[in-house]
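Recall from the previous lesson that a structure prediction takes nothing but the amino acid sequence as input. Here we apply that procedure to N-acetyltransferase from Streptomyces albus. The sequence below is the only information supplied.
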Amino acid sequence: MLRPLTADDLDPFVDLHADPEVTRFVPAYTREQARQRLAEIEQQWDERGHGVCAVELKETGAFLGRCGLNHWEVFDEVEAGWTFRRSAWGQGYATEAARACLEWGFAALDVPYFTAMIDPANTASAKVAARLGFTPGRRDRFLGHDVIVHVLHRPGTRNG
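The prediction returns the following tokens.
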């Protein structure tokens, strides 16, 4: 299940970003930083009509992680991103959630492509991106880290 992340997700969001294996490739957050990030996510949903979602197990409502479409002003691009608890790794949740976000995004948003900014050492996320049809594009710096910007063009376009 996907639903917009809100301030009510503070505890599971902090827990997700406290695992050192998870934070090898995404930032760790203090409670205050997480509160600020969740406020930014809610604001993006309000202003842009899209954002980052909580991913919950349908049967139990357990918080598995986050996935969604995030607009980054610095690039003027919309990134598809995913981060999951270690217990959810290797079960297809990232691919399933990201595919749903991308399908919805191409139907709802007037964008020619989505990006996925992935640390070169994050082979698991690169595999998810490849399964979704992304291709490696440019190298860039994002939030102080080197990344490979993977690109997925709108289906039916010259590049997609």
